[in-house]
Write a structure and sequence with these properties.
The chain has 145 residues and is mainly α. The chain contains five helices and no strands.
Length: 145
């Protein structure tokens, strides 16, 4: 287990990135059953990651640094955008529209990259700096979320 919020959350970003890549491979192969499974795994991972941040990390960060409500609010808005894209992807898989799936995956990929860059470059270091002694407890709660 890591003792760093930034490392834990970045590792989870990478897990989601691998699941997204698996979706891209599945749609390219035309295997709709596999794609449906991969999309479900991706959606579950993304939603779980967003919940960890919105229910545990962001409230803790804002509690010790109220000015962090701006950046965390922006990240939460981006989470909503990605949730919507994940729903659109599930719908496109259901209609077996490969072009739509690829377009949504491409958009999701771009949005995730930009989003993760902000979290990894700004929010997670901010959490590391401001949460200090609370880190072990927060990590335990993140892992349980």
């Amino acid at each position: 287990m890591t003792d760093s919020i930034a490392t834990f959350m970045t590792d989870d970003h990478q897990r989601c990135d691998h699941l997204l890549a698996a979706c891209e491979q599945a749609v390219s192969g035309g295997d709709w059953t596999r794609l449906a499974e991969q999309v479900k795994d991706l959606s579950t991972a993304l939603l779980g990651h967003f919940d960890m941040e919105e229910q545990v990390l962001f409230p803790e960060l804002v509690a010790v640094s109220p000015w962090a409500s701006g950046p965390t609010g922006m990240m939460t808005m981006e989470h909503a955008q990605m949730r919507s894209l994940a729903e659109e992807l599930e719908d496109a898989v259901g209609t077996r529209d490969a072009d739509a799936c690829l377009g949504i995956l491409e958009t999701l990929h771009l949005v995730i990259q930009q989003h993760n860059s902000k979290e990894e470059g700004i929010l997670y270091p901010m959490a590391e700096e401001n949460l200090g002694d609370q880190t072990p407890d927060i990590l335990n709660r993140l892992q349980a979320a």
